[in-house]
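Quick illustration, no need to memorize.
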Amino acid sequence: MKSIPASPHDNRVKGLSGGLWHALVLSLLAFTLLCLSTESHSAQIIFAQNGLTVNVAPGETVAVPITVSLEDTSLPKPYASFGLAHVGGTLDRNWINSQIYMSLNSSYKTRQAVLQVKVPADAQGGLYKGILKTVWLRSNEIVAPAEFEINVDVDSFVSCSQVPLFSDIVSSQESINMRNNKSLQIELSGSVAVPDGCEISTAEYQLTDEYGELDKVEALQLGADGSFTVAIPMVASRKGNDKDGRLYTVKFEAENKAGVGESVETNIVVMHDNGKK
């Protein structure tokens, strides 16, 4: 049997199929290398203050600036548009106004955003934590996701709204009846109440002498329960024409963040018939 030679047209078809096959293999190889290179190198979003802690009082709103940067870019004109979203943690998402969207590119690789942190007035003290993550709207470069953490430390103190209150002021004696010019000490005691959320910063007593000779202000030592006892030096002396006697006046004061609290005045009198039987 005589064989029939293949036509030139058949050779062209086979050659074309081989070329397409090689082109397809090369394309798949290039795509694979591109994917591998893309996965191994991607741009980074950096939060400069990641993990910061904010101290907030109940009912207070604070502005927290954060700096965001686009780094390790590989394309000549990178662009990433993104925002922040609450994705977890124990922080109430309503406490943070994270409706922030911004764009970073080759001309503006760093921008600053401001988070509004608002804590309700009835918030309990403690540490709250939220995780904010970038949400990519569009980009011409692969950008690795970035998590942002913010700790909101709510102050647990109760605000001080009442001044210290004195009570139970007692004097060892209300009058002085002894020899002229004799020195003595009059003991006074009492207590001062410290309202919740308050701390006394200073406490003192003030002695006022009718004659202006023994006027003084001295620090007052308080016990853990607010009680006190103090011996105040005086002199059994009066002027001869002072018919109603020499008057000493003692007053106590204590101060906290709400202001100054004062006691009622305690009077001690050097009697007119001083020294007489």
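The chain has two domains: 43-154, 165-270.
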